[in-house]
Design a protein that fits this description.
By secondary structure, the protein is α+β, with helices and mostly antiparallel strands. The chain is about 40% helix and about 10% strand. It is built from five helices and four strands; from the N terminus they run αβββαβααα. The chain has a four-stranded mixed beta sheet, covered by helices on one side. A hairpin with a 4-residue loop joins strand 2 and strand 3. Helix 1 runs parallel beside helix 2, helix 3 crosses helix 5 and helix 4 crosses helix 5. The termini are far apart.
Length: about 140
């Protein structure tokens, strides 16, 4: 799938800026491959499981967890990453991560949303979210 490969460096750079701005601590661990990364907003820390077995880009997962830190919810103390979560906060974290990706690409180019899904390794369950953000960033056709 070479046509879906993206240089995710600008996306990573935006995340790094956010980490610095919010003074987020990142701790890398190696635990079971089924244990996802998680955010602990009260401590301003994200725990990244480097052994997590997922096709989803670790950069996307980090962006998702950054949302939980920056939006400090009082509902929950720990947020574990799950691509299938149905809670509003999880959906908002996915949207934040997707929007951050679109903000990191050249303004004059909006990739096909399917290509974005492949580039970030996102499952079909997130297609509606990627499409929503893609439509936000696509310029409407002008009719004369």
């Amino acid at each position: 799938m070479d046509s879906y490969e993206y240089d995710l460096t600008p996306y990573q750079e935006r995340l790094e800026e956010t980490i610095v701005n919010y003074q987020i601590k990142i701790k890398h661990v190696t635990v079971e491959p089924t244990d996802p990364s998680f955010a602990y907003p009260n401590k301003n820390i994200i725990i990244i499981n480097d052994a997590y077995n997922s096709k989803i880009s670790p950069i996307f997962i980090l962006a998702h967890e950054i949302y939980h830190i920056t939006q400090k919810s009082i509902d929950q103390q720990i947020y574990a990453f799950s691509p299938l979560a149905k809670r509003t906060e999880e959906k908002n974290a996915h949207l934040f991560a997707i929007r951050l990706f679109f903000k990191s690409i050249d303004e004059g180019y909006v990739p096909n949303y399917i290509a974005v899904m492949y580039a970030l390794g996102l499952p079909l369950s997130m297609e509606h979210l990627v499409r929503q953000v893609w439509l936000e960033h696509s310029k409407p056709f002008s009719v004369n």
